[in-house]
Amino acid sequence: MRERQLLEDGISAVRRVEDELSDNIELIELGEEEGDEAVVRDAEEGLRKMLADVERRQVEAMLSGEADGNDTYLEVHSGAGGTESQDWANMLLRMYTRWAERQGYKVEVLEVHDGEEAGIKSATIQVKGHNAYGWLKTESGVHRLVRISPYDSNARRHTSFSSVWVYPVVDDSIEIDINESDCRIDTYRSSGAGGQHVNTTDSAVRITHIPSGIVVQCQQERSQHKNRAKAWDMLRARLYEAELQKREDAANQEAASKTDIGWGHQIRSYVLQPYQLVKDLRTGVESTSPSDVLDGALTPFMEAALANRIEGNSEGVEDID
């Protein structure tokens, strides 16, 4: 019923745009014939209002993938470079948390592995809200930071890398079969704050899916049972995302603009020194205010990446305009 309602709303919106466009064009023609500039101005203003609505719906139309409407998991992993890259991973985690808050989404921290001196080695969050995966799915890849390191006593410029991985939460309508004999389950003590029980029992759970090499872990809950259940959900989601990616790669294998979200593929650079610039290497979208981007102003980058992906999928389709 939810899917039906979304489809009905989309069809109604297209028909309404068609009707309003036709009405405003007729008004402009009528006003020009009768020399009534007021009618022409009113119709032109109506077209401008329509444009804003159509642009908003264009973005919504890009979020029509099989799992785009789902909640999503987002993982951040620091790269080589010790404290510097671990601090960068923590900055990325904050950036996505701030973006989600701006969108009105709920963020739940599932696991965090703190760095030795500062920052984090890795973290996993769950972002809950309509189209959360659709918005975030293009953020998977390697993110590069260039800045004067606050951890370098000589104030030298450093380049750091961290990886982001995004995959959808699988709802109950999607069946993913996992052979438990293909998995290795490890338990360990949770790290960080959480009280006596968390730090003195093996409540954290790590599951390794041997055929694919996928590893998931959860230490959010106080009980091993709950962490195990959450970890199984995460593994199902990762396997589902891998299947979605296989389908997309197969569909795009002939496209020059094919999207690659594999490890080692740098998608965006954040330069804080010697100049201020954030640049997406896939779309060319730039911002000269890194502080705003790192505070969650990511939507323009996401919109461009989504449009780029849609163009890649439609390459070779004849333009019937």
Automatic annotation (TrEMBL):
It is found in: Cytoplasm. This is Peptide chain release factor 2. It comes from the Bacteria. One of its GO terms (cellular component) is cytoplasm. NCBIfam families: prfB. The lineage of its organism: Bacteria, Pseudomonadati, Pseudomonadota, Alphaproteobacteria, Hyphomicrobiales. Residues 189-205 form the Prokaryotic-type class I peptide chain release factors domain. The modification N5-methylglutamine is found at residue 196. One of its GO terms (molecular function) is translation release factor activity, codon specific. Methylated by PrmC. Methylation increases the termination efficiency of RF2. Keywords: Cytoplasm, Methylation, Protein biosynthesis. Transmembrane segments: none annotated. Its main location: cytoplasm. InterPro entries: PCRF, Pep_chain_release_fac_I, Pep_chain_release_fac_I_sf, PrfB. Belongs to the prokaryotic/mitochondrial release factor family. The gene is prfB.
